[in-house]
Amino acid sequence: MRLHDTTLLALRAITAHRLRSFLTLLGIAVGIAAVILLTSIGEGIHRFVLAEFTQFGTNVVSISPGKTKTSGPAPTGIPSSVRPLTLEDARALQRLPHVTGMTATVWGNTEVNANGRLRRTTVHGVSADTLKVYNIKVRSGQFLPAEDSENARAFAVLGAKLKSELFGSANPLGARVRIGNLQFRVIGVLEAKGQFLGIDLDDAAYIPTARALELYNRDGIMKIDVSYEEGVPAARVADAIKALLATRHGREDFTITTQEDMLRTLSNILDILTMAVGALGGSSLLVGAVGIVTIMTIAVAERTGEIGLLVALGAPRRTILGLFLGEAVALSAVGGVMGLALGIGLAQLIHLAVPALPVHTPITFVILAEGIAIGIGLLAGVLPARRAAQLDPVEALRTE
Amino acid sequence: MRTPDLIRFAHGAATGNPLRTALLVLAMAIGVAAVVVLTALGDGARRYVMNEFSSLGSNLVIVLPGRSQTGGFSPGNAITNTPRDLTVDDAQALQRASAVRLVAPLAVGTSEISYGGKLREVMVAGTTSQFLEVRRMTLAQGRFLPDADWRRGAAEAVIGAKVREEMFGNTPALGQLVRIGDRRFRIVGVLASSGQGLGMNTDELVIVPVALAQAMFNSNTLFRILIEATSRDAIEPAKAQVAAIIKERHEGEEDVTVITQDAVLATFDRLLGTLTLGVAGIAAISLAVAGILVMNVMLVSVTQRTAEIGLLKALGATGDTIRLAFLTEATMLSLAGAVLGFVLGHAGAAIIRQLFPAFPAFPPDWAVLAGLLTALVTGILFGVLPARQAARLDPVQALSRR
What we know:
The structure holds two protein chains of two kinds. Chain A is α+β, with helices and mostly antiparallel strands. Helices cover 55% and strands 18% of the residues of chain A. In chain A, the strands form two sheets. Chain A has a six-stranded mixed β-barrel. Chain A has a two-stranded antiparallel sheet with strand order 8-9. In chain A, strand 2 and strand 3 form a beta hairpin. The mean pLDDT of chain A is 86. By secondary structure, chain B is of the alpha+beta class. Chain B has twelve helices and ten strands. In chain B, helix 1 (3-16) packs across helix 10, helix 2 packs antiparallel against helix 8 (261-304) and helix 2 packs across helix 10. The radius of gyration of chain B is 33 Å and the shape is elongated. The chains are: A alpha+beta, B alpha+beta.
């Protein structure tokens, strides 16, 4: 049978019982819509989280004291009994090839006293290159100057929120602030950066690392971040750092994490979550598939006479099989398209209503969903189609 | 029509077409089973987390260095420094508080333990004798740290089950000398093996006196102070007393956060409860799809049984009776599907419990009831339209068709 005729026959069979066909379509459509909606939300969150992480630059390698345990690295900041990372270690790293910036970080929680106001906030001890490493910009004034780290002058740079809390709309440049029991002079204010995983980046003050070590009475750096040139493989930079520090410390008593590793692990976790959520919607798809099987079975039973006539006219069994399979696939394909439209529409609607919830429907998902719908049609239609193809024409024509 | 006749009629219609009935029941069953299994997973996760927390100790109040401007816990302060140390003496002073029963200072860090040529990275916790009771831990062998002066400490260590296994294997661990960091310690106890716990996994922990840990990590400040209040009602007063004592000792500076385990627990409970609800809602969508299927099939069967309906009407059945008959059929199908789904769902949850014994995957009663009810209501709701259509058939027209 020509493809044209098969298609016409299938379409006519579907439109003959419009309500019935529509309801079957609806079953698949709701299932696909549920899956697309959920995975769109999942993918939206995935992209959002990745964007949050990569806002600090992707060409970054982190070094922390203490070796990686077999059960994974210890959370950053916990002390270690091995040799601490020092400012000299950090300075040595700066001179490695391909390194564009380095910042040695110490952070803590303390009171900042300025302009007659008091605020308890996070204070970060950082190096002058921090702007380069973390993609932060200065809104007014300047960042910490690049100078000899041990004798760094007591300058402070305020985050946007801290500045407004302490100084309101007044210009803080040149003002004195008291952090803990040390005095600092404000030389800059950063641009607003927003929140990062629940931590307010703007409610912070930035001082030289050496001063922070003094403030918190430590002699070890908590974390060193190194940024490197674009295009250079992270592994090469990590190896160079490992070699240098191992020589300085006598052994490998530190942990190196590349941004790539972190992002990859994060991406994997988020992908698994999105898939799990999609599978949740899969139960409705399953029911939709059962729906197609049911309706096609009924259709075959109803049209025994028609089938018998076709066979009597000489149609091979394969044609009958193809006819009914085609009907099932057509039903599920159209249902799939409906479901896609419904799902994507709902996702966009939710995003409009709740702008905080990111949604994103990649083309691959759309194609995959339609593919799954067609697959369901094929699988669901096989049994009824085979039944139709195996009908005895004499018996079929006799039934009325 | 009398009720037994109604039921028999519906039953006859259902069994007259076994494949169709089976598929309908299956569709409903999948929906209900999905709700049951998914809520079992969600509730299991909630119960697992709650269990882990309550195994940490009850009536627990925790002191963390650092405080956010607004008070309360901030993730940025989970691990931080403060200009003023939270000292062992501060912890000792807390013992004076009336609402406090036990106090255990805690200093943590990573280090290496070595014995007999074997080297291993471990998490080291420096604490005092009351830690064992506050954290509800049990010993497998030996004893815990002795009740001694907190500012000093004998070079003794208690190790976790996994550490013992990896470092000592079959040889006895008690009494052996090991090297932790740059110092030597004698093993005096081994902790009982715990499951995978939240936060610190005690199997890979090494516990030493707090004074020695602080020397090892060259730090004079504590990581946390764990406090057990005298009773449940004493938790809030204990919180206030502890904050006041530390503020006084720190010359009026409020540089610690005091949290109760209850508050953390309540947050998790709420979070996971909402998650379970969301998951159940998604599973319920499949019930809606099953309902659409029921409606579809019932509509088809009405067109196929026109002659039968015509005959019934000619024999005197009213529109109401016809409607009732079809509604009964829809209800029966949904009920059968719901019961089957209930059984399948519980079986699924049982299989999960077999595969993951630590995970209490029990479907909560409210979810099961909601699932069953939704299935029933869906079936009845989606059966109304076909029933009405059947009732509206003109008997003459219906009978004339063959």
